[in-house]
Amino acid sequence: VAPYVGHKFRKEPPGFYKQVLRKLIEERKAVKKLMESAKDEYERRVYEERQKALKILANTFYGYMGWLGARWYSKEGAEAVTAWGRKIISESAEIAKSMGFTVVYGDTDSMFVKGNGNIEALIKTITKRFDLEIKIDKVYKRVFFTENKKRYAGLTEDGKIDIVGFEAVRGDWCDLAKEVQRVVIEKILLTENVDEAVKYVKNVIMNLRRGNFKLEDLIIWKSLDKDIDEYDVEAPHVAAARKAMKVGYLITKNSKIGYVIVKGTGKLSDRAEPYFMVKDKSRIDVEYYIDKQIVPAAMRILERFGVKENSLKTITGTDILSFFSKK
User: Fold this and answer.
1) Is this structure's pTM higher than 0.85?
2) Are residues 130 and 151 in the same domain?
């Protein structure tokens, strides 16, 4: 019986979803063993990508089960998965607290705890309680979270920066915005110095205004999810695609469009140009990139530490002196 929702299921005989999921999980375990005994780095990476693909396939079953258009749609099954996940995470958190840990974060399939308790004992207790295979995924020296689920960054014990859910690992921002966010995260995690992170962002802004940037770092990439004629709203990437077609480029559904925003007085879509049509950096609308790309990407992190947006955009005499002293 599923908690909270009360849906009832029988364990035997195994149903369609159970059979397929069991096969995927067993196959992933086998591939992970092959990954551990790989002969070289190339072979290890091949197995790593294969096990990731199997994990994604297994994880998509929940979404597919709850999709109205699915051939094997099961509203009760999807609701039961959510309910069991909530119950397991909730009760696991209570177990962790009872064993001396502080629970700092939890989502659909994971829980972050801190403290000096016996982590192996915690794992055994939860495993015995729910008959589930759980493990320590990562150990962080420092980590910070945002209000959004599955959006956090941490410094692991071996010194690696782990970024989840931020623009730094997404493709709908220009490379400079991704770089700014990555460096801000690194400065905070490695040095715990927010002022240094703020100073870095201000330097990027001053460099943009002085024309010290590469055009390719400002290209925004976005794919067309349907044929160009099917768009009713002229989004920037759609407008850029139309301009590319006018000069002979073949653009179809799923084409990836790279564009930059140039100066002008029209709508944003009017100022979106295919990147290959802009050769002069002075045409770039740097204020757009500052307001809509650089500052928002940085503020996703810095706002958690009390930094105000205006403080990033306000360049003082001290900032200017510091900027030129490094030249």
Assistant:
1) no
2) no
Q: In angstroms, rounded to a whole number, what is the distance separating the alpha carbons of residues 178 and 162?
A: 14
Q: Is residue 117 part of a domain?
A: yes
In this structure, the answer to whether residues 167 and 97 fall within a common structural domain is no
Q: What angle do CA 317, 321, 322 make, to 5 degrees?
A: 115
Residue 273 burial (CB count, 10 A): 20
Strand intervals (E) in the chain: 102-106, 111-114, 140-145, 152-156, 161-164, 220-223, 256-261, 272-274
| Average pLDDT of the residues in 91-101 | 94
- Number of domains making up the chain: 2
Residue 94 structural domain: 16-137
User: Which CATH number does the domain housing residue 293 bear?
Assistant: 1.10.132.60
Residues 161 and 126 in one domain: no
- Distance separating alpha carbons of residues 67 and 242, to the nearest angstrom: 34
* 129 lies in the same domain as 229: no
Statement to judge: residues 73 and 193 lie in one domain:
no
Structure tokens at 150: 């599955």
User: Taking a C-beta distance cutoff of 8 angstroms, is the pair 183, 298 a contact?
Assistant: no
Q: How far apart are CA 268 and CA 127, in angstroms?
A: 54
Query: Would you state the torsion angle of the CA atoms of residues 322, 323, 324, 327, taken in this order, to the nearest 10 degrees?
Result: 120
Alpha-carbon distances of 265 from 175, 262, 281, 285, rounded to whole Å? 25, 10, 18, 11
What CA–CA distance (Å, rounded) separates 193 from 196? 6
pLDDT for 81 equals 92
